[in-house]
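Shipment paperwork, digital attachment
Item: protein structure file
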Amino acid sequence: MWSIGTKKVPGVTSRRGGTLLRLIPLLLFGSAFGAVPEEAVYQWAADVTGIVSKETKAAPRAYLWLPPATVKAKGLVLAQHNMLEEPVFAHPAFRAELAKADVGLVWITPMVMQAWDKLADAELAAMEEAIRELGDRSGHPELGTVPLAPFGHSAMATYPYLFAAARPERTFCAVSIKGDWPAKGRPCWEPAKVAARAKVPLLLVTGEYEDGYNRREKARDLMKEIPDATFSIWLDVGGGHFDWSDELCQGLGKWFAGLAAIWERGRPRPLTGVSVNGFWYPNEKLAKMVADYESLPRGKGKFTVLGYEYEGKTLEQNPKAHLQVVFGTKDMTFEVKPVFETTVPPGRPETWTGKKAGEANVVPGVTSRRGAGQSAVTAARREVTPGTLVLQKIQGPVEHLGGNTWAVRYNRYDPRGYRSREATFQMVYPGPDGFKRSVQQGLVHLPWPRQDLKDGGTFTVSAKAFPKTVPAGYGAYVREGPAVIENGRIVLKDVPKRLKGPIDIAVVSYDLARKEPSVLTVYRLVR
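Attachment content:
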C-alpha cells in the first residue's frame, strides 16, 4: 500500500471549478511533433494463450516496445485495443518521455477483457503470463515482476480502475482517458474506491467537449468519500471524446514517467503529494504541467463546426451515430476534404456552439452578416487554406499519401476482426485566433483484407541487408520486430542496443489488388 502526505501549492486559483496555476506556461506545450507515425515499432510479440477473442475467434496478441537503450526495464504501461490507446502509444513524444524512465509499452489487440465490475481471474492470469513470455523473448525477465500502469479509453476506460483494484501491489498508476469517471452510480465507482484506499495514483483525463467540466465536478465524489484519495483530474481543453494531440501525448508520457520514477525511488517510502482545488497530484511539477495545459489558448474562444467532404458532397452528421460522421469506400485510395460546416448540425454541435441546429456556423476569418453570412461561410468552406484544417488518423489501416488523399494500408490488426475493415479520423481546427481548438471525429468503412496467409519462410540476415524494397503491386507492414515500412522499403528502427541473440522481424506483404494471399516472411536479424 502507498502512504501519502499532502500539501497545498502556493499560487493556485480556481476558474470554473478547474485548476489554474499563476505560473509561466511550460515550453512543453509550445512545440509540435507532427503526425503520429503510420505504424509504430513493437520489437516483440506473443499470443495471450487461453483466451479466445470474440472479435477474431482467436487468441489476442500482445505487442511489446522497449526503449532501445534500456538495460533494465523499470515498468510497463499496459493497454488493450479500443481507440486512443493506439495513437498515444505510437506518438514519438510519448515514447521519448517513457524512454527517459526506462518504461516500456504492452499493447494487446484485440482486447482480452472488457468488464464493468471485476476483471476475471483467468483473463488477468493470461495477460500476466503473456507479459512474462514477452520478458523471456526480449531477454528482459524482469518484465514478469515490474510495476504496471493500466491505460484505457472510452469503452475500456473502466479497465484501469478495475486493474488497479485487482492488482494494487503492482500498479504504479492507473490512467482512464475519456470514458469513465469515479462518481456515485458509475461503473468505476467501487473499483476506484478500492484502488484509492490502496493509495494507487489514479488519473482521469476528460475532454472539454464530452462534458468535461461537469465530469470533473461529479468526480469530486471520490474525494468526498476518501479525502486522502490519490486521485487527479486533467481537463483536455479544446478536446473531445475521441481525439489526441501532440501536447496531450507528451504530457501523458511525462505523467507515466514521473509516477514510475516515484515508484522506483522505493516503497513503502511515503508518497507525498500536493492538493490543487480539492484534487491530489503526485508532485508540484506534474500539478503545474496539468495546470499549464488547462490554461492553453486552445481552450479559449468560439467553437466552429467542422465537416467532411467526400466525392464532392459534405457528409451529413448523424446525431444518433457515436462518431457522428460515418461513410464508406470501395477503393484502396480515396480523398477526404476538410471543410467548415455552413450550418450547425443537430446533436452535440448544438451544445458546443450554443446554437440551434440550422443556424449559421461561425467560421474563422468570415464576418457573418444577416443576409450575407450564408454565402460568405459557404465560400470559406470551399476554399480551405492548407494547414488551416487538419485531418489526422486516430486509428485504422490507412496511410496519408499527401493533400486530401488516403490509401488503405493493412497493418498488424488481425484481418479476421472488424477493426481491419474501418478507420477513424479526427478533423482539427487548432485555433487560437479568437477560436478554440475544434475537433470532429469520423469513421470510414474500408474494403476487406484477405484473411489467408502464406508462409514466406525465415531468413537469417544482418543489418547490412536493410533497407529492403517491398515488391511492386504489394503493400507491407511489420507485424513485430525493430523495423518500419517507409516509402516502400523495410527500414530498421529501435533495434535494442543490448541485443545479444537474434531478433525476428515479421513482415506481412499483401497484394494491393487483393487477388493473391498475403505472405508472412520472417527476417531473423543477428548482430
